[in-house]
Amino acid sequence: MSPAVKAMLRRKNRLMRTGRVEEAGALARHVRLAVTNFSKCAQKAWARVHEVLGTRAKSDQAVSAGNLTAQLINDHYASISVDSEYRQPARKLTALDHREFVSEYTVFRILDKLRPTAAGLDNIPAWFLS
Description:
Elements: H1 3-17, H2 21-53, E1 64-65, E2 68-69, H3 70-80, H4 104-112, H5 126-129
Antiparallel strand pairs: 1-2
Helix pairs in contact: 1-2
């Protein structure tokens, strides 16, 4: 990440903290464009490196270690992550039917108030979420 992008992200966070959400959104679009352009340049550079070295891998090739392939691993986890006997629980009479909209700004404010040393039940540190 370039120093210019870091500066834009810091400015966006300052704008969000002061409630200037529209300006922060516009700056976020500029950051997204800068990162996308950088990513495209990096992809072209790596493509050229692979071309020069002659190590360009085909996307349809399976990554294998012995007789273990990426497709076998994917199939295994896909088969165990689905419960064919799952039944959705009945709706409780006390449950409200309306849905509450949570904006990006609300999530930003909540994450901004986290202490930097706090970790949740998932042991993900707060600095990772910001």
